[in-house]
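User: For documentation purposes, I need each entry recorded in a consistent format: the amino acid sequence on its own, followed directly by the corresponding C-alpha coordinates. There are two entries in this batch. Please keep commentary to a minimum and don't merge the entries.

Assistant: Recorded as requested. Entry 1:
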Amino acid sequence: MIREAICEGADVEEALEKAKAELGLTETDEYDFEVIQREEKKKFGLFGGRPAKVRAFIIINEAPEDKTEQFLRDVLDNMGLPDIAIERKTDEENTLTFNLSGEEEGFVIGRRGETLDALQYLASLVANHNTEEYIKVSVNVGNYRDKREKTLEILGRKLAFKAVKTGKKTSLEPMNPYERRIIHTAVQKVNGATSWSEGENTARHVVIGPDPKVKNNRRGGGYNNRRGGKRGGYNNRNTNPAPNPDRVPLNEGSATGLYGRIDK
Protein backbone atom coordinates (compact mmCIF):
# COMPACT_ATOMS: atom_id res chain seq x y z
CA MET A 1 0.00 0.00 0.00
CA ILE A 2 1.25 3.50 -0.83
CA ARG A 3 0.67 6.55 1.36
CA GLU A 4 1.37 9.86 -0.30
CA ALA A 5 1.11 13.59 0.20
CA ILE A 6 1.25 16.32 -2.44
CA CYS A 7 2.14 19.79 -1.20
CA GLU A 8 3.15 23.19 -2.54
CA GLY A 9 5.75 25.60 -1.28
CA ALA A 10 7.78 28.64 -2.21
CA ASP A 11 10.48 26.23 -3.38
CA VAL A 12 11.05 22.46 -3.64
CA GLU A 13 12.57 22.21 -0.19
CA GLU A 14 9.63 23.91 1.50
CA ALA A 15 7.08 21.82 -0.42
CA LEU A 16 8.94 18.62 0.54
CA GLU A 17 9.01 19.54 4.22
CA LYS A 18 5.25 20.14 4.15
CA ALA A 19 4.64 16.75 2.50
CA LYS A 20 6.83 14.95 5.06
CA ALA A 21 4.97 16.65 7.89
CA GLU A 22 1.63 15.59 6.41
CA LEU A 23 2.83 11.98 6.29
CA GLY A 24 4.08 12.22 9.86
CA LEU A 25 7.67 11.37 8.91
CA THR A 26 10.68 11.95 11.12
CA GLU A 27 14.25 12.63 10.04
CA THR A 28 15.11 8.90 10.25
CA ASP A 29 12.11 7.59 8.25
CA GLU A 30 12.67 6.40 4.70
CA TYR A 31 10.61 7.91 1.91
CA ASP A 32 10.64 8.75 -1.80
CA PHE A 33 9.56 11.89 -3.55
CA GLU A 34 9.19 13.44 -6.96
CA VAL A 35 9.08 17.04 -8.09
CA ILE A 36 5.84 17.65 -9.92
CA GLN A 37 6.48 21.30 -10.57
CA ARG A 38 9.42 23.64 -9.88
CA GLU A 39 8.89 27.15 -8.64
CA GLU A 40 8.99 30.14 -10.96
CA LYS A 41 9.55 33.68 -9.79
CA LYS A 42 7.27 36.50 -10.89
CA LYS A 43 8.54 38.64 -13.72
CA PHE A 44 9.40 42.13 -12.56
CA GLY A 45 7.97 41.04 -9.27
CA LEU A 46 4.44 41.44 -10.66
CA PHE A 47 3.54 38.95 -13.40
CA GLY A 48 3.35 35.15 -13.59
CA GLY A 49 5.22 32.97 -11.16
CA ARG A 50 4.15 29.71 -9.54
CA PRO A 51 4.96 27.65 -6.43
CA ALA A 52 6.86 24.38 -6.35
CA LYS A 53 4.83 21.16 -6.03
CA VAL A 54 6.22 17.92 -4.59
CA ARG A 55 4.80 14.41 -4.13
CA ALA A 56 6.27 12.46 -1.21
CA PHE A 57 5.31 8.82 -0.61
CA ILE A 58 6.08 5.74 1.44
CA ILE A 59 5.37 2.08 0.64
CA ILE A 60 3.76 0.10 3.45
CA ASN A 61 4.07 -3.69 3.19
CA GLU A 62 0.92 -4.96 4.90
CA ALA A 63 0.52 -8.57 6.00
CA PRO A 64 -2.05 -10.47 3.87
CA GLU A 65 -4.30 -11.06 6.85
CA ASP A 66 -4.27 -7.36 7.81
CA LYS A 67 -5.07 -6.02 4.36
CA THR A 68 -7.76 -8.67 3.79
CA GLU A 69 -9.48 -7.88 7.08
CA GLN A 70 -9.37 -4.17 6.27
CA PHE A 71 -10.85 -4.90 2.84
CA LEU A 72 -13.76 -6.81 4.40
CA ARG A 73 -14.28 -4.03 6.94
CA ASP A 74 -14.42 -1.40 4.19
CA VAL A 75 -16.87 -3.45 2.11
CA LEU A 76 -19.19 -4.13 5.06
CA ASP A 77 -19.14 -0.47 6.07
CA ASN A 78 -20.04 0.57 2.53
CA MET A 79 -22.88 -1.98 2.56
CA GLY A 80 -24.29 -0.16 5.56
CA LEU A 81 -23.31 -2.98 7.94
CA PRO A 82 -20.80 -1.35 10.35
CA ASP A 83 -22.07 -3.45 13.28
CA ILE A 84 -21.03 -6.75 11.70
CA ALA A 85 -18.04 -8.02 13.70
CA ILE A 86 -15.07 -9.74 12.05
CA GLU A 87 -13.21 -12.52 13.85
CA ARG A 88 -9.94 -13.61 12.22
CA LYS A 89 -8.12 -16.93 12.58
CA THR A 90 -5.06 -18.36 10.81
CA ASP A 91 -4.18 -22.04 11.05
CA GLU A 92 -1.00 -23.97 10.27
CA GLU A 93 -2.23 -25.03 6.82
CA ASN A 94 -1.98 -21.46 5.54
CA THR A 95 -5.74 -20.99 5.74
CA LEU A 96 -7.09 -17.58 6.66
CA THR A 97 -10.59 -17.70 8.14
CA PHE A 98 -12.89 -14.76 8.78
CA ASN A 99 -16.08 -15.36 10.73
CA LEU A 100 -18.68 -12.57 10.50
CA SER A 101 -21.36 -12.07 13.12
CA GLY A 102 -24.07 -9.54 13.95
CA GLU A 103 -27.79 -8.89 13.90
CA GLU A 104 -27.91 -8.37 10.11
CA GLU A 105 -26.16 -11.61 9.11
CA GLY A 106 -28.83 -12.34 6.51
CA PHE A 107 -27.68 -9.41 4.36
CA VAL A 108 -24.12 -10.73 4.43
CA ILE A 109 -25.20 -14.23 3.38
CA GLY A 110 -27.52 -13.12 0.58
CA ARG A 111 -29.70 -15.34 -1.60
CA ARG A 112 -28.44 -18.92 -1.20
CA GLY A 113 -25.11 -17.57 0.01
CA GLU A 114 -24.35 -15.56 -3.15
CA THR A 115 -23.23 -12.42 -1.29
CA LEU A 116 -21.08 -14.45 1.10
CA ASP A 117 -19.49 -16.31 -1.83
CA ALA A 118 -18.71 -13.02 -3.57
CA LEU A 119 -17.09 -11.64 -0.41
CA GLN A 120 -14.95 -14.75 -0.07
CA TYR A 121 -13.88 -14.63 -3.72
CA LEU A 122 -12.84 -10.97 -3.52
CA ALA A 123 -11.13 -11.48 -0.15
CA SER A 124 -9.08 -14.29 -1.69
CA LEU A 125 -7.95 -11.98 -4.50
CA VAL A 126 -6.85 -9.38 -1.95
CA ALA A 127 -5.03 -11.88 0.26
CA ASN A 128 -3.11 -13.44 -2.63
CA HIS A 129 -2.11 -10.21 -4.36
CA ASN A 130 1.70 -10.11 -4.66
CA THR A 131 2.22 -13.21 -2.50
CA GLU A 132 4.47 -16.14 -3.38
CA GLU A 133 2.59 -18.85 -1.48
CA TYR A 134 -1.13 -19.37 -2.05
CA ILE A 135 -3.35 -18.48 0.91
CA LYS A 136 -6.71 -20.20 1.23
CA VAL A 137 -9.36 -17.75 2.43
CA SER A 138 -12.65 -18.71 4.06
CA VAL A 139 -15.36 -16.18 4.88
CA ASN A 140 -18.22 -17.58 6.92
CA VAL A 141 -21.22 -16.43 8.93
CA GLY A 142 -21.69 -18.60 11.99
CA ASN A 143 -21.89 -22.19 10.73
CA TYR A 144 -23.74 -21.29 7.51
CA ARG A 145 -21.32 -23.12 5.20
CA ASP A 146 -21.52 -26.32 7.26
CA LYS A 147 -25.32 -26.18 7.14
CA ARG A 148 -25.29 -25.47 3.41
CA GLU A 149 -22.95 -28.39 2.72
CA LYS A 150 -25.13 -30.76 4.75
CA THR A 151 -28.25 -29.52 2.92
CA LEU A 152 -26.63 -30.13 -0.47
CA GLU A 153 -25.48 -33.63 0.53
CA ILE A 154 -29.02 -34.56 1.60
CA LEU A 155 -30.47 -33.06 -1.59
CA GLY A 156 -28.00 -34.95 -3.80
CA ARG A 157 -28.75 -38.30 -2.16
CA LYS A 158 -32.51 -37.71 -2.20
CA LEU A 159 -32.56 -36.91 -5.93
CA ALA A 160 -30.20 -39.80 -6.65
CA PHE A 161 -32.60 -42.30 -5.02
CA LYS A 162 -35.44 -40.65 -6.92
CA ALA A 163 -33.57 -41.15 -10.21
CA VAL A 164 -33.05 -44.84 -9.43
CA LYS A 165 -36.71 -45.30 -8.53
CA THR A 166 -38.32 -43.36 -11.39
CA GLY A 167 -35.70 -43.58 -14.12
CA LYS A 168 -35.99 -39.84 -14.68
CA LYS A 169 -33.39 -37.12 -14.48
CA THR A 170 -33.60 -33.89 -12.46
CA SER A 171 -31.88 -30.58 -13.14
CA LEU A 172 -30.80 -28.49 -10.17
CA GLU A 173 -30.42 -24.74 -9.93
CA PRO A 174 -27.10 -23.14 -10.99
CA MET A 175 -24.35 -23.49 -8.38
CA ASN A 176 -20.71 -22.57 -8.03
CA PRO A 177 -18.05 -25.27 -8.68
CA TYR A 178 -17.57 -26.07 -5.00
CA GLU A 179 -21.27 -26.75 -4.40
CA ARG A 180 -21.60 -28.78 -7.60
CA ARG A 181 -18.75 -30.96 -6.40
CA ILE A 182 -20.61 -31.63 -3.12
CA ILE A 183 -23.64 -32.80 -5.12
CA HIS A 184 -21.53 -35.05 -7.37
CA THR A 185 -19.85 -36.67 -4.35
CA ALA A 186 -23.20 -37.33 -2.67
CA VAL A 187 -24.70 -38.88 -5.83
CA GLN A 188 -21.67 -41.14 -6.28
CA LYS A 189 -22.58 -42.92 -3.03
CA VAL A 190 -25.94 -44.08 -4.46
CA ASN A 191 -25.65 -47.16 -6.66
CA GLY A 192 -27.67 -46.82 -9.84
CA ALA A 193 -27.47 -43.02 -10.06
CA THR A 194 -25.04 -40.65 -11.73
CA SER A 195 -24.63 -36.92 -12.19
CA TRP A 196 -23.08 -34.48 -14.64
CA SER A 197 -22.99 -30.74 -15.25
CA GLU A 198 -24.59 -28.74 -18.03
CA GLY A 199 -24.66 -25.06 -18.99
CA GLU A 200 -22.00 -22.40 -19.14
CA ASN A 201 -20.61 -19.90 -16.65
CA THR A 202 -23.22 -18.73 -14.11
CA ALA A 203 -25.87 -20.98 -15.66
CA ARG A 204 -23.86 -24.18 -15.07
CA HIS A 205 -25.85 -26.68 -13.03
CA VAL A 206 -25.94 -30.32 -11.98
CA VAL A 207 -28.20 -32.94 -13.56
CA ILE A 208 -28.92 -36.16 -11.65
CA GLY A 209 -30.21 -39.23 -13.47
CA PRO A 210 -30.16 -43.05 -13.56
CA ASP A 211 -26.84 -44.69 -14.32
CA PRO A 212 -27.16 -46.49 -17.71
CA LYS A 213 -24.46 -48.99 -16.70
CA VAL A 214 -26.47 -50.31 -13.76
CA LYS A 215 -29.20 -52.84 -14.60
CA ASN A 216 -32.70 -51.85 -13.45
CA ASN A 217 -34.01 -54.44 -10.99
CA ARG A 218 -37.50 -53.07 -10.49
CA ARG A 219 -39.90 -55.97 -9.91
CA GLY A 220 -42.38 -56.62 -12.68
CA GLY A 221 -40.42 -54.75 -15.32
CA GLY A 222 -42.07 -51.39 -14.82
CA TYR A 223 -45.26 -49.72 -15.98
CA ASN A 224 -45.58 -51.41 -19.38
CA ASN A 225 -45.35 -54.93 -17.92
CA ARG A 226 -48.33 -54.24 -15.67
CA ARG A 227 -50.26 -53.14 -18.75
CA GLY A 228 -49.19 -56.12 -20.79
CA GLY A 229 -46.64 -54.18 -22.78
CA LYS A 230 -43.10 -55.10 -23.72
CA ARG A 231 -40.95 -56.71 -21.14
CA GLY A 232 -38.60 -54.34 -19.43
CA GLY A 233 -40.85 -51.30 -19.34
CA TYR A 234 -40.00 -47.65 -19.46
CA ASN A 235 -37.16 -47.75 -17.02
CA ASN A 236 -35.18 -50.32 -19.04
CA ARG A 237 -34.88 -47.88 -21.91
CA ASN A 238 -31.67 -45.89 -22.00
CA THR A 239 -33.40 -42.52 -22.28
CA ASN A 240 -30.93 -40.63 -20.09
CA PRO A 241 -27.37 -41.40 -21.22
CA ALA A 242 -25.00 -39.71 -18.79
CA PRO A 243 -21.78 -38.03 -19.86
CA ASN A 244 -20.15 -39.42 -16.69
CA PRO A 245 -20.88 -43.16 -17.03
CA ASP A 246 -18.11 -44.35 -14.68
CA ARG A 247 -19.71 -42.45 -11.77
CA VAL A 248 -16.45 -40.75 -10.84
CA PRO A 249 -16.92 -37.40 -9.02
CA LEU A 250 -16.46 -34.63 -11.53
CA ASN A 251 -13.76 -32.06 -10.86
CA GLU A 252 -16.09 -29.17 -10.06
CA GLY A 253 -13.62 -27.47 -7.74
CA SER A 254 -11.08 -28.59 -5.19
CA ALA A 255 -10.62 -28.56 -1.47
CA THR A 256 -8.45 -25.44 -1.75
CA GLY A 257 -11.39 -23.08 -1.61
CA LEU A 258 -14.78 -22.09 -2.84
CA TYR A 259 -13.58 -21.53 -6.39
CA GLY A 260 -10.25 -23.33 -6.21
CA ARG A 261 -6.93 -21.54 -6.45
CA ILE A 262 -6.95 -18.05 -7.89
CA ASP A 263 -3.66 -17.51 -9.66
CA LYS A 264 -2.05 -14.11 -9.75
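Entry 2:
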Amino acid sequence: MDTEFDNQKARAAGWFRSLRDKIVATFEELEKSHTEGVLSDHPPRKFEVRATKRKGQEDEDAGGGLMSVLRGGRVFEKVGVNISTVFGTLSVTAQSEMMSRKALSDVEADPRFWASGISLVAHMQNPHCPAVHMNTRMFWTPHAWWFGGGSDLNPCIEYEDDTTHFHTTQESYLKVHDAKHYPRFKQWADEYFFIPHRGRARGVGGIFVDDYCTGHWESDFALIQDIGRAFLPAFVPLVEKRRCQSWTDGDKDIQLVHRGLYAEYNLVYDRGTKFGLATGHDAEAVLMSLPPLAKWT
Protein backbone atom coordinates (compact mmCIF):
# COMPACT_ATOMS: atom_id res chain seq x y z
CA MET A 1 0.00 0.00 0.00
CA ASP A 2 2.85 2.41 0.81
CA THR A 3 4.41 1.76 -2.61
CA GLU A 4 1.07 2.36 -4.29
CA PHE A 5 0.64 5.68 -2.51
CA ASP A 6 4.23 6.65 -3.30
CA ASN A 7 3.50 6.15 -6.99
CA GLN A 8 0.29 8.13 -6.75
CA LYS A 9 2.01 10.97 -4.94
CA ALA A 10 4.71 11.11 -7.61
CA ARG A 11 2.12 11.18 -10.40
CA ALA A 12 0.16 13.97 -8.70
CA ALA A 13 3.26 16.08 -8.09
CA GLY A 14 4.39 15.50 -11.69
CA TRP A 15 1.01 16.62 -13.01
CA PHE A 16 1.05 19.85 -11.02
CA ARG A 17 4.54 20.57 -12.39
CA SER A 18 3.48 19.95 -16.00
CA LEU A 19 0.42 22.18 -15.57
CA ARG A 20 2.62 24.89 -14.11
CA ASP A 21 5.00 24.70 -17.07
CA LYS A 22 2.14 25.00 -19.58
CA ILE A 23 0.56 27.99 -17.82
CA VAL A 24 3.87 29.84 -17.46
CA ALA A 25 4.66 29.34 -21.16
CA THR A 26 1.17 30.51 -22.18
CA PHE A 27 1.32 33.63 -20.02
CA GLU A 28 4.78 34.59 -21.30
CA GLU A 29 3.48 34.23 -24.85
CA LEU A 30 0.57 36.57 -24.00
CA GLU A 31 3.14 39.10 -22.78
CA LYS A 32 5.15 38.89 -26.02
CA SER A 33 2.12 39.01 -28.32
CA HIS A 34 0.59 42.15 -26.77
CA THR A 35 1.61 44.61 -29.48
CA GLU A 36 -1.27 47.10 -29.50
CA GLY A 37 -3.29 49.06 -26.97
CA VAL A 38 -2.25 50.44 -23.61
CA LEU A 39 1.28 49.43 -22.50
CA SER A 40 2.01 47.76 -25.86
CA ASP A 41 5.34 49.64 -26.01
CA HIS A 42 6.21 48.39 -22.53
CA PRO A 43 8.89 45.65 -22.47
CA PRO A 44 7.36 42.18 -22.17
CA ARG A 45 8.22 40.46 -18.91
CA LYS A 46 9.14 36.91 -18.06
CA PHE A 47 8.65 34.94 -14.88
CA GLU A 48 11.28 35.13 -12.18
CA VAL A 49 11.66 31.67 -10.66
CA ARG A 50 13.14 30.65 -7.35
CA ALA A 51 13.04 27.55 -5.18
CA THR A 52 11.05 27.61 -1.96
CA LYS A 53 11.55 25.57 1.19
CA ARG A 54 9.32 24.51 4.02
CA LYS A 55 10.80 24.82 7.51
CA GLY A 56 10.81 21.39 9.12
CA GLN A 57 11.54 20.51 12.71
CA GLU A 58 15.26 20.70 13.58
CA ASP A 59 16.07 21.77 10.02
CA GLU A 60 14.88 18.46 8.58
CA ASP A 61 14.04 18.22 4.88
CA ALA A 62 10.36 19.12 4.69
CA GLY A 63 9.97 19.69 0.97
CA GLY A 64 9.43 22.86 -1.02
CA GLY A 65 8.66 23.95 -4.52
CA LEU A 66 8.98 26.64 -7.15
CA MET A 67 7.72 30.20 -6.89
CA SER A 68 7.29 31.82 -10.31
CA VAL A 69 6.27 35.48 -10.39
CA LEU A 70 5.94 37.92 -13.30
CA ARG A 71 5.76 41.59 -12.31
CA GLY A 72 5.16 44.83 -14.16
CA GLY A 73 4.33 43.29 -17.52
CA ARG A 74 2.36 44.50 -20.51
CA VAL A 75 -0.60 42.26 -19.68
CA PHE A 76 0.06 41.12 -16.12
CA GLU A 77 0.73 43.61 -13.36
CA LYS A 78 1.54 40.65 -11.14
CA VAL A 79 0.98 36.95 -11.65
CA GLY A 80 2.31 34.11 -9.57
CA VAL A 81 2.27 30.42 -10.39
CA ASN A 82 3.53 28.33 -7.48
CA ILE A 83 3.96 24.60 -7.06
CA SER A 84 4.98 22.80 -3.92
CA THR A 85 5.38 19.33 -2.49
CA VAL A 86 5.74 19.41 1.28
CA PHE A 87 5.71 16.78 3.99
CA GLY A 88 6.51 16.17 7.62
CA THR A 89 4.54 16.45 10.83
CA LEU A 90 1.57 18.73 11.31
CA SER A 91 2.07 21.41 13.94
CA VAL A 92 -0.35 21.58 16.85
CA THR A 93 -2.08 24.52 15.17
CA ALA A 94 -2.45 22.65 11.88
CA GLN A 95 -3.66 19.54 13.71
CA SER A 96 -6.44 21.50 15.38
CA GLU A 97 -7.61 22.77 11.99
CA MET A 98 -7.44 19.31 10.41
CA MET A 99 -9.30 17.53 13.22
CA SER A 100 -12.61 18.89 11.98
CA ARG A 101 -12.03 17.62 8.44
CA LYS A 102 -12.20 14.30 6.66
CA ALA A 103 -12.59 12.05 9.71
CA LEU A 104 -9.26 13.19 11.13
CA SER A 105 -10.36 13.41 14.74
CA ASP A 106 -7.46 11.08 15.63
CA VAL A 107 -4.79 12.97 13.66
CA GLU A 108 -2.91 13.61 16.90
CA ALA A 109 -2.05 9.90 17.08
CA ASP A 110 -0.06 10.12 13.83
CA PRO A 111 0.24 13.70 12.52
CA ARG A 112 2.38 12.93 9.47
CA PHE A 113 1.26 14.54 6.21
CA TRP A 114 2.17 15.01 2.56
CA ALA A 115 0.72 17.68 0.27
CA SER A 116 1.35 18.75 -3.29
CA GLY A 117 -0.36 21.30 -5.50
CA ILE A 118 -0.35 24.29 -7.77
CA SER A 119 -1.61 27.76 -6.88
CA LEU A 120 -2.07 30.68 -9.27
CA VAL A 121 -3.24 34.26 -8.90
CA ALA A 122 -3.14 36.83 -11.72
CA HIS A 123 -3.65 40.57 -11.21
CA MET A 124 -3.95 42.34 -14.55
CA GLN A 125 -2.72 45.68 -15.88
CA ASN A 126 -5.91 46.45 -17.78
CA PRO A 127 -8.90 46.97 -15.45
CA HIS A 128 -11.13 45.40 -18.10
CA CYS A 129 -9.18 42.13 -17.82
CA PRO A 130 -10.42 40.07 -14.88
CA ALA A 131 -8.16 38.89 -12.10
CA VAL A 132 -8.23 35.14 -11.62
CA HIS A 133 -7.33 32.47 -9.08
CA MET A 134 -6.76 28.75 -9.58
CA ASN A 135 -5.42 25.97 -7.43
CA THR A 136 -5.52 22.20 -7.32
CA ARG A 137 -3.92 19.92 -4.76
CA MET A 138 -3.62 16.46 -3.23
CA PHE A 139 -3.36 15.93 0.51
CA TRP A 140 -2.40 12.71 2.31
CA THR A 141 -2.14 11.55 5.91
CA PRO A 142 -1.94 7.99 7.27
CA HIS A 143 -5.65 8.36 8.04
CA ALA A 144 -7.02 9.67 4.74
CA TRP A 145 -6.29 11.33 1.41
CA TRP A 146 -8.21 13.79 -0.73
CA PHE A 147 -8.07 16.25 -3.60
CA GLY A 148 -9.25 19.83 -3.76
CA GLY A 149 -9.18 23.00 -5.78
CA GLY A 150 -10.92 25.02 -8.44
CA SER A 151 -10.77 28.41 -10.10
CA ASP A 152 -12.73 31.63 -9.79
CA LEU A 153 -12.95 34.87 -11.75
CA ASN A 154 -12.53 38.26 -10.07
CA PRO A 155 -13.34 41.13 -12.46
CA CYS A 156 -13.45 44.67 -11.15
CA ILE A 157 -15.52 45.66 -14.20
CA GLU A 158 -17.94 42.84 -14.92
CA TYR A 159 -18.92 41.61 -18.38
CA GLU A 160 -21.73 39.09 -18.51
CA ASP A 161 -20.35 37.33 -21.60
CA ASP A 162 -16.97 36.87 -19.88
CA THR A 163 -18.63 35.33 -16.83
CA THR A 164 -20.70 33.04 -19.04
CA HIS A 165 -17.65 31.84 -20.97
CA PHE A 166 -15.69 31.15 -17.78
CA HIS A 167 -18.47 29.09 -16.22
CA THR A 168 -19.52 27.29 -19.41
CA THR A 169 -15.96 26.15 -20.09
CA GLN A 170 -15.57 24.74 -16.60
CA GLU A 171 -18.92 22.97 -16.86
CA SER A 172 -17.84 21.30 -20.11
CA TYR A 173 -14.77 19.78 -18.43
CA LEU A 174 -16.70 18.61 -15.37
CA LYS A 175 -19.74 17.03 -17.01
CA VAL A 176 -17.68 14.20 -18.55
CA HIS A 177 -17.14 13.01 -14.97
CA ASP A 178 -20.58 13.69 -13.51
CA ALA A 179 -23.33 16.10 -14.56
CA LYS A 180 -23.90 16.96 -10.90
CA HIS A 181 -20.35 18.20 -10.34
CA TYR A 182 -20.68 21.64 -11.92
CA PRO A 183 -23.78 22.87 -10.06
CA ARG A 184 -22.42 21.47 -6.80
CA PHE A 185 -18.93 22.89 -7.23
CA LYS A 186 -20.30 26.23 -8.44
CA GLN A 187 -22.46 26.57 -5.33
CA TRP A 188 -19.46 25.61 -3.19
CA ALA A 189 -17.39 28.36 -4.82
CA ASP A 190 -20.19 30.90 -4.28
CA GLU A 191 -20.23 30.02 -0.58
CA TYR A 192 -16.48 29.67 -0.10
CA PHE A 193 -15.47 32.93 -1.82
CA PHE A 194 -18.07 34.99 0.03
CA ILE A 195 -16.73 37.75 2.29
CA PRO A 196 -18.99 37.83 5.38
CA HIS A 197 -17.79 41.16 6.75
CA ARG A 198 -18.53 42.81 3.37
CA GLY A 199 -21.71 40.87 2.71
CA ARG A 200 -20.66 40.08 -0.86
CA ALA A 201 -18.66 37.71 -3.03
CA ARG A 202 -15.13 38.69 -3.99
CA GLY A 203 -15.86 37.97 -7.69
CA VAL A 204 -18.27 36.23 -10.07
CA GLY A 205 -17.48 32.73 -8.86
CA GLY A 206 -16.31 29.62 -10.58
CA ILE A 207 -15.86 26.15 -9.13
CA PHE A 208 -14.45 24.90 -5.84
CA VAL A 209 -14.20 21.49 -4.19
CA ASP A 210 -12.34 20.29 -1.13
CA ASP A 211 -11.91 17.04 0.81
CA TYR A 212 -12.81 15.17 -2.38
CA CYS A 213 -12.31 11.41 -2.02
CA THR A 214 -14.63 8.78 -3.45
CA GLY A 215 -12.20 6.03 -2.51
CA HIS A 216 -11.21 5.58 -6.17
CA TRP A 217 -7.91 7.38 -6.61
CA GLU A 218 -7.66 7.13 -10.40
CA SER A 219 -11.05 8.67 -11.10
CA ASP A 220 -10.55 11.35 -8.47
CA PHE A 221 -7.15 12.22 -9.94
CA ALA A 222 -8.67 12.39 -13.43
CA LEU A 223 -11.23 14.89 -12.13
CA ILE A 224 -8.62 17.13 -10.50
CA GLN A 225 -6.58 17.04 -13.73
CA ASP A 226 -9.57 18.23 -15.76
CA ILE A 227 -10.22 21.05 -13.30
CA GLY A 228 -6.65 22.14 -14.07
CA ARG A 229 -7.02 21.61 -17.82
CA ALA A 230 -10.12 23.80 -17.88
CA PHE A 231 -8.27 26.84 -16.58
CA LEU A 232 -6.47 28.13 -19.69
CA PRO A 233 -9.41 27.75 -22.13
CA ALA A 234 -11.68 29.39 -19.55
CA PHE A 235 -9.41 32.36 -18.87
CA VAL A 236 -7.08 33.11 -21.80
CA PRO A 237 -9.83 34.06 -24.31
CA LEU A 238 -11.01 36.73 -21.86
CA VAL A 239 -7.52 38.22 -21.69
CA GLU A 240 -7.16 38.17 -25.47
CA LYS A 241 -10.50 39.96 -25.81
CA ARG A 242 -9.92 42.66 -23.16
CA ARG A 243 -6.19 43.37 -23.07
CA CYS A 244 -6.28 46.02 -25.84
CA GLN A 245 -9.33 47.80 -24.45
CA SER A 246 -8.58 51.40 -23.43
CA TRP A 247 -9.05 52.40 -19.80
CA THR A 248 -9.30 55.58 -17.75
CA ASP A 249 -7.90 56.67 -14.40
CA GLY A 250 -11.38 56.02 -13.03
CA ASP A 251 -11.28 52.43 -14.28
CA LYS A 252 -7.93 51.93 -12.59
CA ASP A 253 -9.29 53.35 -9.35
CA ILE A 254 -12.18 50.86 -9.46
CA GLN A 255 -9.64 48.07 -9.95
CA LEU A 256 -7.53 49.12 -6.96
CA VAL A 257 -10.53 49.32 -4.66
CA HIS A 258 -11.75 45.91 -5.82
CA ARG A 259 -8.34 44.43 -5.10
CA GLY A 260 -8.89 45.38 -1.48
CA LEU A 261 -11.59 42.70 -1.37
CA TYR A 262 -9.12 40.14 -2.63
CA ALA A 263 -6.53 41.06 -0.02
CA GLU A 264 -9.07 40.98 2.80
CA TYR A 265 -10.38 37.58 1.81
CA ASN A 266 -6.98 35.94 1.45
CA LEU A 267 -5.67 37.26 4.74
CA VAL A 268 -8.78 36.55 6.80
CA TYR A 269 -10.53 33.50 5.35
CA ASP A 270 -8.49 31.57 2.79
CA ARG A 271 -7.71 28.00 3.91
CA GLY A 272 -4.57 27.73 1.79
CA THR A 273 -3.05 30.87 3.30
CA LYS A 274 -3.75 29.66 6.82
CA PHE A 275 -2.41 26.17 6.16
CA GLY A 276 0.74 27.39 4.41
CA LEU A 277 1.68 29.73 7.22
CA ALA A 278 0.72 27.25 9.94
CA THR A 279 2.93 24.52 8.44
CA GLY A 280 5.99 26.71 8.01
CA HIS A 281 6.05 27.07 4.23
CA ASP A 282 7.88 29.99 2.61
CA ALA A 283 5.87 33.08 3.62
CA GLU A 284 6.62 34.92 0.37
CA ALA A 285 5.23 32.00 -1.61
CA VAL A 286 2.15 31.69 0.61
CA LEU A 287 1.41 35.42 0.30
CA MET A 288 2.14 35.53 -3.44
CA SER A 289 -1.60 35.91 -4.03
CA LEU A 290 -1.73 39.45 -2.65
CA PRO A 291 -2.09 42.21 -5.25
CA PRO A 292 0.87 44.53 -5.96
CA LEU A 293 -1.30 47.59 -5.27
CA ALA A 294 -4.69 47.97 -3.63
CA LYS A 295 -6.79 50.78 -2.27
CA TRP A 296 -9.38 51.30 0.46
CA THR A 297 -11.77 54.24 0.52
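Summary note for entry 2:
The mean pLDDT is 91.
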